């Protein structure tokens, strides 16, 4: 009979978030693409609402894409979900980051 190993003890580690700048409601979100898929839209969500959408109309993006996202009236710590929607499939890529909007 084989004995099971003890599970590896994992510690919680938080990723460093992005600090907002006073009086600047926009935040820059860079994407570094290793596969440049034809893109329908890029969407950004915070506090359960869509805060920005960029429409690429099926175009192939460059290797680096940067969006300026305005948080409007949202302030304080926000969890941002960024979605890269692919044009020719139902697939999407997701990224999540902590932002301190000021």
Overview of the molecule:
The protein has 102 residues and is mainly β. A five-stranded mixed sheet has the order 1-7-6-3-4, with no helix packed on it. The protein has one domain (18-101): Coagulation Factor XIII, Chain A, domain 1 (Distorted Sandwich). It starts with 17 loop residues before the first strand and ends with a strand. 0% of the residues lie in helices and 55% in strands.
Order of helices and strands: EEEEEEE
CATH fourth-tier homologous superfamily: chitin-binding protein cbp21
Radius of gyration of CA atoms, rounded to a whole number: 18 Å
Biggest sheet record: 5 strands, mixed
The strand count comes to 7
Overall domain count? 1
Please bin the fraction of helical residues.
under 10%
CATH topology: Coagulation Factor XIII, Chain A, domain 1
Structural class: mainly beta
Shape category: elongated
Number of helices: 0
| Low-confidence spans | 1-17
Outline of the structure:
By secondary structure, the chain is an all-beta fold.
How would the blueprint of this fold be written?
Layout (H helix, E strand, L loop, with lengths): L17 E2 L6 E7 L6 E8 L2 E11 L4 E7 L5 E11 L5 E10 L1
Parallel strand pairs: 1-7
Antiparallel strand pairs: 2-5, 3-4, 3-6, 6-7
What labels describe this entry?
two-stranded antiparallel sheet; 7 strands; five-stranded mixed beta sheet; mainly beta; elongated; Coagulation Factor XIII, Chain A, domain 1; 102 residues; disordered N terminus
């Amino acid at each position: 009979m084989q004995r099971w190993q003890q599970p590896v003890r994992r510690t919680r580690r938080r990723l460093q978030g992005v600090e907002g700048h006073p009086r600047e409601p926009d935040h820059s979100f860079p994407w570094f693409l290793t596969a440049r898929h034809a893109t329908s839209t890029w969407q950004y969500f915070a506090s359960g609402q869509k805060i920005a959408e960029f429409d690429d109309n099926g175009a192939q993006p460059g290797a680096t894409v940067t969006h300026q996202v305005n948080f409007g009236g949202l302030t304080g710590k926000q969890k941002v979900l960024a979605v890269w929607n692919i044009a020719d499939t139902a697939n999407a890529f997701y990224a999540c980051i902590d932002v301190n909007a000021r």
